[in-house]
Design goal:
single chain; two-stranded antiparallel sheet; 117 residues; 22% strand; alpha+beta; 37% helix
Length: 117
């Protein structure tokens, strides 16, 4: 069972989240290229949420799938090459179709398993 964070820890995390959101909001006027912006946002989201791997996906209507456009924490060649199903059976597809987060955890055998948020 995970330890419950203290109020000081929660306050520290909230301040860090706010700081990162503010820094991302200042990027727009700087004219950063969209692909660099997506990579930066994925890295910041990974850092602030303490989620090991994050990604930005693009729905490809002509193929009916999701391409991993940017991300943080992935093995080489995943970003820009990995394609995910856009249907409800895929955690990524389910997130797109329901507009809701899909949590994935690692089972004792090391496989990734989706679960309800």
């Amino acid at each position: 069972m995970a330890d419950t964070p203290t109020s000081n820890e929660l306050e520290r995390r909230l301040k860090e989240q706010r700081r990162i959101i503010e820094s991302i909001s200042r990027i727009g006027p700087e004219g950063i290229a969209p692909d660099r912006l997506m990579h930066h946002v994925a890295a910041q989201v990974s850092r602030v949420t303490q989620i090991e791997r994050t990604k930005v996906m693009r729905y490809r209507r002509d193929r009916g799938d999701l391409l991993v456009e940017a991300g943080a924490g992935w093995k080489p060649n995943v970003v820009g090459n990995a394609v995910l199903a856009a249907d409800y059976a895929s955690p990524a597809g389910r997130a797109v179709q329901t507009s809701a987060p899909v949590c994935v955890f690692r089972s004792p055998r090391g496989t990734l398993c989706p679960r309800a948020p």
